[in-house]
Design goal:
Mean pLDDT: 90
Largest sheet: 6 strands, mixed
Number of domains: 1
CATH topology: Metallo-beta-lactamase, Chain A
Strand order of the largest sheet: 1-2-3-4-5-6
Number of helices: 6
CATH architecture: 4-Layer Sandwich
Oligomer: single chain
Structural class: alpha/beta
Amino acid sequence: MKPRLLLAVASAALPACAPPASRPAPAPDAAVALSGGPNTSMAYFARVDSGIVAIDLGWWGAEKSVRGALGKLGAKPEDVADVFVTHSHRDHVGAWRIVRRSRFHLASAEGDAFTGERRHRGWIPRGAERLKPTPLPRRGDVDLRPFSRDTTFVFGGDTLHAYVVPGHTAGSAVYLFRGTLFLGDAATYTRWGGFGPARRGYSDDARAAARNLVALWARIPRGAVREVCTAHAKCSPLTPAFLADVSR
């Protein structure tokens, strides 16, 4: 087996060196599901006027974790009306089957990767898919609602802003909801390096990801973001230090 493929196996199967999971600021009508073991992936759920909205769907073990998080909101998977996908790597779409009746929102450029019709370019996810393909939905299995540019979604008294930030994957997106900016893997955290931009090896184009992350901040209204969270449950207040770290 080639060295790169071995590393892909390790990256897909073994716990990552990461700090204990943190979470978005608690709210009475929101819940978090953590899955994937020490290499934690986060799915976020909130009750809005039209039902439940979700941001990402976790990794292995996600279905049990998602049911538990929804239970805290007095909800079931069939109550999830809208799912917002940051990107379609395997560790963020794990529970799609149990919420398959939802509307799935994602950037247009991500659609054919989400349905398995196109492979991601990062060599680590490509290697992992070669060893063990992810059971993704086929086109027509779910109600896909693609957006091609920054888009605002209104749910009664709540507003969710979607921003297209390609690079980590072709259609990476981030979502601003109730003061929290959910960054997916457009920003990452490691114990040895702290916060930083999308990681090489995992990304389609790490340089484009870094450029587009820097350009993102000018598109977000000043004062709209209270905290930022990666898709792996590492959160931080939005500070000049954080911006400097992810812009390096």
